[in-house]
Amino acid sequence: MKKSALSDPFEKARLEKGYGKMNDQDDPVTMILGLKEVRKCAHNWKTFQSGATPGRIVVPSEVNIRDTRQIPFEVDPPEHKGYRDLVEPWFKRPLEADYQRKLRQQMDEIVDEVLKKDTVEVVSDFSLRLQSRALTLLLNIPYEESEVWIGWGTHVFRSEDTALDGDKANILYDYIDEQISKAIETPGEDLYSMLLASEIDGRKLSREEVKGVMILTFAGGRDTVINAVTNSIAYFAEHPESLAQLKEHPEITGRAVEELIRYFAPLTHMGRVATKDTEVCAHAVKADSRISLCWASANRDTRAFENPNEIMLDRKLNPHVSFGFSTHNCLGATHARQIMHTLLISLAEKVKSIDIIDYKENIEELGEFKRKVGYDHISVKFHA
Amino acid sequence: MAKITFITTDNETITLEGTSGSVMQLAVDNNVPGIDGDCGGVCSCATCHVHVAPEHVEKTGEASEIEQDMLELDDHANEYSRLCCQLEINDHLDGIVLQVAESD
User: Fold this and answer.
1) CB 3.0-4.6 Å disulfide test: which of A93, A147, A271, A378 passes with A57?
2) What is the tally of structural domains in chain A?
3) What is the pLDDT of residues A281-290, one digit of tens each?
4) Is residue A166 scored above 80 in pLDDT?
5) CB contact under 8 A, A317 and B104
6) Closest residue on chain A to B72 (Cα)
């Protein structure tokens, strides 16, 4: 197996029964594994709700470390629509030329920087910094603020030895509280201020609602983007011909982005809570128990993808679910796609090859499954 | 060269001409409201949903199984639904009329 490969630990269970089981802090999860079933359950928000106790649909559950409801993520229709419509135009800004120009500038800068270094630890010296800097564009705040976020390290919710760390999470929540207070005092052109000035059903968004959107924005786009970027670097290290292909055929960049995101599935799965006794894949699901929609497994379903365990950069039909599906599809997808697109353009233009020197894989323990989602660290040398 | 007409959800009529690429790309390049094409045309996002005028269904042909699976869970889909990223522009499509579908 190549160093950059992410295997599919779900195949056997997906084919034999369509679901898997895992425990999580005594709140077990039935993982749904096939593409069709994942989509059906994602679409069926009435039976599989997101608007449960805040933090419960996340796996591992954040119920013990968070009370604030993430918005619009943990709200179901019909209320969901008002929130989503309110934030959607802001999160589509990555389609604007000026945003793309600034992102390109950031990307070229960091790629030039790592090309000059002897060795680079990709997770902290490249992906985290790139992700943090790009987030200043999404929030429309000064670039320098990214230094604060870079200082938090790679995981806002995790420390080395525990999957969930309440103290670390509080750093983020306290920071957001502080920034909201600042924006109340001195409104600007940033996301905090836009939210604080917004109305829903004829009333201003509450401070708690603003906080809910901001936590989602910070938390949803951190590990996911870092994993997507780091895995891509590892992949290109082992496939220099792919960099050459992108350089020669930049018109396939969009497809390449979707394919890398399909294959890496940076978020393995997302939970839902059953609102009634029901059944999935001929398996009983009890009311108030959890299921998860396993995007990573669905993306390897041979019923929809030819050679699913291979990266085919110009894959034409690619109905992946890495950004979720239906009502709650990823709000940050436009930003994430733009980051990946810009990364690929910049790498293809500037980088000839990459050598992997040393690495440690980040393996998720999911009950009967173990899944590589990225790297704890990976040192490489970039060559121009 | 094919002339393709979009009728938006606000009943605006937009007629465009294209020679190659997908109908979705033509619509996105010309800012047709309601056609977003978020995934760039790989049949992953369903943000390019149109209803083909019944008399033109013969020109567009049928959706593939993968496309049908996507449409199956769209509450606004009907028998004339297509994801227009899967419609390649060619002379055969000349004159078709596409109603941009509602979205949630």
Assistant:
1) A271
2) 1
3) 999 999 999 9
4) no
5) no
6) A40
Do residue A333 and residue B40 have CB atoms under 8 angstroms apart?
A: no
List the domain range (segments joined by +) for residue A250: 11-383
Q: What is the CATH number of the domain that holds A78?
A: 1.10.630.10
Segments of chain B with pLDDT less than 70:
none
Judge whether A130 lies within some domain. yes
Q: Which amino acid, A245?
A: Q
- Asked if A180 contacts A210 with a C-beta cutoff of 8 angstroms, the reply is yes
CB contact under 8 A, B44 and A318: yes
A170 band by pLDDT with thresholds 50, 70 and 90: confident
Q: What residues of B are in contact with residue A303 (Cβ under 8 Å)?
A: none
| Phi, psi (deg, nearest 5) at residue A28 | -60, 160
Q: How far apart are CA A38 and CA A32, in angstroms?
A: 6
Chain A residues whose beta carbon lies within 8 Å of the beta carbon of residue B88: none
CATH classification of the domain holding B50: 3.10.20.30
A218 pLDDT tier (thresholds 50, 70, 90): very high
Residues of B with CB under 8 A from a CB of A: 38-45, 64, 66, 69-70, 73, 104
ipTM of predicted complex = 0.94
Residues 6+ apart with CB under 8 A from B39: A258, A318, B45, B47, B85
